[in-house]
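Quick sanity check, Peptidyl-prolyl cis-trans isomerase:
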Amino acid sequence: MEPGYGCTIKPLLPTGNDSINVLQKVMNIAKDCVVSIDYTLTDPEGQVLDTSSGAGPLSYLHGNDNLIPGLEKALEGKTAGDSFKITVPAVDAYGERDEHLVINVPLDRFQGVGTVEAGMQFEAETADGSRIVTVTKVANGMATVDANHPLAGMDLTFDVKVVDVRAATAEELEHGHPHMHDDGCGEDCDCGDDEGCNCGGCH
C-alpha cells in the first residue's frame, strides 16, 4: 500500500488576488491520513472530562480504529483549520453499558495485591481479549468489578479544531498508528518494534 493511500488533496485557488496563480494544496481527512486535533471533551452536564490543552494536539491515523466511530466520522472530509462541535451518542462512542460485565470476584483471585479497594483498576483476560476492569465495591470477601468502559452509556460532546492533516508513511500504515517522536517506542506502544517505531506510545 502506498503511503497516504486514501488521503485526498484538492487545489485551492487563493481568493481576492487574481494575480496569484500558485495553487495551494488542501488535504481532506480520509482513510490513512495522519490527523492532529485539539479537543475538549465534556459530559452531558458540561463537565470537562479530557482536553488536549496544555498537552499538545492528539494525533491519530484516520480510518484505523484509533478514535471512537462517531468522532472519526465527523472528522471525515475536514481540513486543517476547521473547527466544529459535536455530541456523539453513546452507541457511537464507547457503547451502551452492559450489566453482564459487572461481576463479583473473590478477593483471593487478586494475586499479588495487598489491599483491594474501590476505584482500583486491573487488566483482566476475558473471552473477548484483555479488558481494563474497575473495582466498584469491596465487601464480605468479594470485589465487584466493572468491565464496561468508564464512559460507556454516556453521550459525549467534543469541541474540536483540526491542526494538521498529512499522508501517513508506509511504516505508520504498517503499525496502524502515527509516529510523532524520534526517541523510540513508549511504554504504551504495542506495535512490537522497539527499535524501528518512533511513535513514542502516542496512540
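Posting the structure with no commentary besides this: The longest strand covers residues 156-167.
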